[in-house]
Structure to design on (484 residues):
């Protein structure tokens, strides 16, 4: 059984191609170049704060990588290249979903249809929440896939991150044996040796343990993600954690001590409610909010809010996930707690009828807190949390970008959150930017994403690892795949 990986090569011959390339182009296997000619290359660098766009661009691809990028005066189209005429199009890097899933082949097709060319899948221990396995490509399959990057977990008491099933965690704090520094280092070595790219730090990791984990992970090229409880979020930022996950978690950084402590002792149980209430009742301009926002602005740490979780769970004026084009590829049974595809009922909200208004009010307040952090200078990375609360693969990331724009990111900043920011924050120099030597993951759009990030949904062509994706065939086969 092999993990999904995309073989990157492309056989090309001289031809001008408008609109979509034929399916046989995507199946070519030689090493002749592909050239994208015309169109405006959108600058996503510097967290979306740069604007050095390149009109009438020429991009040459070979062997699954970008060979050259520039204007017509400086980049020549190889004589044997197959040419995509991109006149009038807007060219962006392939989108990266920083927290997704791959449960079926149809997930893969849905991602590619929506221009998502890389997906980070965080694996969890058996019996824990999250993804415990990755769809394996059937033997002999030649289906195109996004590039799938994996993450492992680590805990303060169990190396694989398995958490206590007792609530609260007082006994774990007082009586269980913590992992030693040597045991933590061995776990980091194990995750790195597996080929993973990231390490999720568990709630029960203590500050001194976190220092060891971050140091050893970075020394091995692993990015670190954090959902903290035994360690405070300000400490995690100081320790150099690369990204903090879920705004309902990291916003507890602004709690007063009497609210944080119950949350710290029971982050996954009902006893932690004071921490959540403290966030809901917070002043957007309080000293705690301002100090945390400024700390983030002056640090390497970014935020991955996963705004789509609450938007779907609490019905926060977002499109029904089933209206996304990529919803055609999946079934309700593929997703976790999905919106009812027939009635449109949001099951989590419906299960709390007496608290529905309060849940929505608090969720909007959380968005306002993220808007405040952004205004203070915090940086963001996009992760859809697919398939939580019905987020569909591919479409969920577009929803997340829309929500990032809602909380104050400019369209270009939101686009950078799914592209260049992975280069800067994670150090992933192989993707996220259209530059020589990087993966040939490219999306051509018919609308301008500088005006509204929703334009990332106006897709004309998707190229993954040098292959042109036959989106028409993907959609045509969606119903058949759905029934498999």
């Amino acid at each position: 059984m092999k993990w999904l990986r995309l073989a990157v090569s492309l056989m090309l011959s001289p031809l001008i191609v408008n609109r979509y390339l034929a399916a046989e182009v995507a199946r070519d296997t030689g090493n002749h170049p592909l050239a994208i000619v015309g169109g405006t290359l959108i600058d996503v660098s510097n967290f979306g704060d740069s604007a050095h766009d390149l009109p009438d661009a020429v991009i040459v691809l070979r062997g699954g990588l970008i060979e050259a990028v520039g204007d017509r005066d400086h980049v020549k189209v190889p004589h044997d290249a197959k040419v995509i005429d991109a006149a009038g199009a807007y060219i962006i890097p392939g989108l990266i979903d920083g927290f997704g899933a791959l449960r079926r082949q149809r997930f893969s097709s849905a991602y590619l249809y929506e221009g998502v060319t890389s997906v980070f899948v965080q694996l969890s221990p058996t019996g824990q929440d999250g993804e415990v396995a990755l769809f394996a490509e059937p033997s002999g399959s030649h289906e195109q896939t996004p590039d799938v990057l994996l993450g492992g977990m680590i805990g303060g008491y169990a190396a694989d991150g398995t958490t206590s099933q007792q609530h609260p965690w007082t006994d774990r704090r007082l009586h269980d044996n913590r992992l030693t520094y040597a045991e933590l280092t061995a776990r980091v070595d194990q995750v790195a040796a597996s080929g993973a790219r990231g390490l999720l730090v568990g709630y029960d990791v203590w500050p001194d343990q976190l220092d060891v984990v971050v140091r050893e992970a970075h020394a091995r090229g692993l990015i670190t993600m954090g959902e903290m409880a035994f360690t405070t979020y300000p400490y995690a930022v100081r320790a150099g954690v690369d990204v903090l996950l879920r705004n309902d978690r990291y916003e507890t950084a602004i709690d007063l001590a009497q609210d944080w402590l119950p949350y710290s002792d029971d982050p996954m149980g009902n006893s932690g409610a004071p921490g959540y209430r403290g966030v809901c009742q917070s002043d957007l301009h309080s000293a705690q909010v301002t100090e945390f926002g400024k700390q983030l602005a002056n640090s390497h740490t970014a935020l991955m809010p996963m705004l789509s979780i609450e938007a779907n769970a609490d019905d926060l004026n977002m499109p029904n996930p089933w209206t996304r084009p990529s919803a055609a590829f999946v079934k309700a049974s593929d997703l976790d707690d999905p919106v009812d595809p027939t009635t449109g009922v949001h099951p989590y909200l419906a299960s709390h009828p007496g608290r529905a208004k309060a849940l929505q009010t608090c969720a909007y307040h959380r968005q306002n807190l993220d808007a405040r952090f952004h205004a203070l200078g915090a940086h963001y990375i996009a992760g859809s949390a697919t398939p939580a609360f019905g987020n569909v693969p591919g479409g969920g990331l577009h929803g997340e970008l829309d929500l990032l724009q809602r909380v104050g990111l400019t369209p270009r900043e939101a686009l950078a959150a799914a592209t260049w920011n992975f280069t800067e924050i994670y150090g992933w120099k192989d993707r996220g930017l259209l530059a020589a030597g990087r993966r040939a993951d490219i999306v051509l759009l018919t609308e301008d994403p500088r005006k509204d990030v929703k334009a990332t949904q106006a897709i004309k062509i998707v190229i993954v690892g040098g292959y042109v994706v036959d989106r028409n065939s993907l959609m045509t086969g969606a119903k058949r795949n759905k029934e498999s």
